């Protein structure tokens, strides 16, 4: 357990000595702690709750609560694997639980992600592997399967899962698997035994089942040369037929998809729901599964993409759609759910956003989460028969009773007059004038910030900083024109917008220009570093967490992986590659830099931060690198985040006071 040893040593090295250092350590501990409820689910009857709660290190504990008897949560099992995390848990039936595990494994010089599915009784005993056995496989089986359906007609105790078939070697036997490709199996959740219901297809990427557990949609793509293809074909099955028929064709255009992308099937209506771009924006459509190819527009929103389906319960019934303008909005197709969500929004303090997390089999009991910008969230149980709403668990118990800052949507002018949307968080009790300030560009680059609780922004606000999170050009969610060629090929536009956020804060009197820093994670860290290349005088300190520092190195990171061609298309070729690689311009930096990186980062290798450190040191610049042994891109480790926040706080307080 090298990670725990190294973290303990760092904790000792950073022991607070003064009152201000003690306050910083306490604030870092509060905001660095992971969500105390990471995953939650209701049993089919609605009488039992399971939830997953992390510890201070790599540990995660699964708890089960008997809601009918008012019993205390019972810990049933704890996972303590630094290289693997529980990412989902569901009730397979009233007695057994199914959990997804995602991890990493070093194979030669590569760090490869993998997933596995396991089952267990609701008391934590009788653990069973539900992913296929790989003991005799000739190659690696990274994909352990995806649960497509929990309830299958006539198949009690079985679930539907995808399976990545890999050829096997077995001497002197005819039992070796000689099939390849992605198929679908029916898996017994108690024994782990399975039988194929969909033969493997080497071209298949994905399957979609209806609410009864019947596979109705399949996507296939060209994987010639071992790389992901650029075009996807979707096929469907008509009702009462096992024959595949063409449904739609989708062209992959960077991170934007051209064509109808199926998402969910409703067998009662015999339709598939999906998203398609029209006039540069994603809209939601339904299409009948009858070969007609006709589509019905269900939702479009001027100026933004429609981004998600809202689904409920064990059958994943489609009940609505969501999109983000200044905040995330939900529009429910189900009138009863719509009335409930609106009523809860009005009844609960602060008019929070309402999310239906899970439901009992008959949807008479709902698991609901309510949260907002200054409320990390509370988990509630709603019983339709009585209309009773009961508090269950705070999503972040470390912040219970802690007054948090409000976030508001703002716009500012870029240098060319374009209005850039973003979110401004001011310290509690502040008049919003002449403050130490952080500009915090988001990761991605095909991502965006949105209104709601943000643990990093809240940490800085608690330390007295104003925080502006810009949705610069290249962000997702605002359509094709805003997305452009995204943040690498048009890095100058994106970083220009980020720097203009800082200039706007100064012009509005919000920021003290002598106490302004920039902090970013992943692509945000890349933008933070490039801000020095564009304007070395603007920010007095730079923090880059898991940043890209050289575009050629980013491409090389993906060589040997199936996503190499997609990455090559994303980065492109031309003079922007050298110009947009901050490690090649270390001599232009004036502000001190703090780099943070995990050694097992498969998104952006730690080599990026080491290269940046070496180049800055070689140019005689101020730089430090905080490394976390064994952690990945997201640093999902409360102790590590606590250390990181404390170090960032010390760095910013020191450098911006000069």
Summarize the structure in words.
By secondary structure, this protein is of the alpha+beta class. It is 20% helix and 37% strand. It has 13 helices and 36 strands. The strands form 8 sheets. An 8-stranded mixed β-sheet has the order 29-30-32-31-33-34-35-36, sandwiched between helices. Strand 23 and strand 24 (328-332) form a beta hairpin. Helix 2 packs antiparallel against helix 4 (455-462). The two termini are 39 Å apart. Residues 1-19 have low confidence and may be disordered.
Strand order of the largest sheet: 29-30-32-31-33-34-35-36
Number of helical runs?
A: 13
What is the residue-mean pLDDT, rounded to a whole number? 90
Shape, principal axes of CA atoms: globular
| Low-confidence sequence ranges | 1-19
Termini separation comes to 39 Å
Count of extended strands: 36
Structural class: alpha+beta
How much of the sequence lies in strands comes to 35-45%
Largest sheet: 8 strands, mixed
As a whole number of angstroms, the C-alpha radius of gyration is: 25 Å
The percentage helix is 10-25%
Q: Notable features of this structure?
A:
658 residues; alpha+beta; eight-stranded mixed beta sheet; 13 helices; 36 strands
Ordered list of secondary-structure elements with their pairings:
Layout: H1 2-13, H2 19-32, E1 39-42, E2 48-54, E3 60-66, E4 74-79, E5 84-91, E6 96-107, E7 110-121, E8 128-129, E9 147-149, E10 158-165, E11 181-188, E12 194-201, E13 204-209, E14 215-221, E15 231-236, E16 245-253, E17 256-258, E18 261-266, E19 271-278, E20 281-288, E21 296-299, E22 306-312, E23 317-324, E24 328-332, H3 335-347, E25 353-359, E26 365-372, E27 375-383, E28 388-394, E29 407-413, E30 419-425, E31 435-439, H4 455-462, E32 466-470, H5 480-483, H6 486-489, H7 491-507, E33 511-521, H8 523-534, E34 541-545, H9 551-557, H10 564-571, H11 576-579, E35 593-598, H12 607-618, E36 623-628, H13 638-655
Parallel strand pairs: 31-32, 31-33, 33-34, 34-35, 35-36
Antiparallel strand pairs: 1-2, 2-3, 3-4, 5-6, 6-7, 7-8, 9-10, 10-11, 11-12, 13-14, 14-15, 15-16, 16-17, 18-19, 19-20, 20-21, 22-23, 23-24, 25-26, 26-27, 27-28, 29-30, 30-32
Helix pairs in contact: 2-4, 2-13, 7-8, 9-10
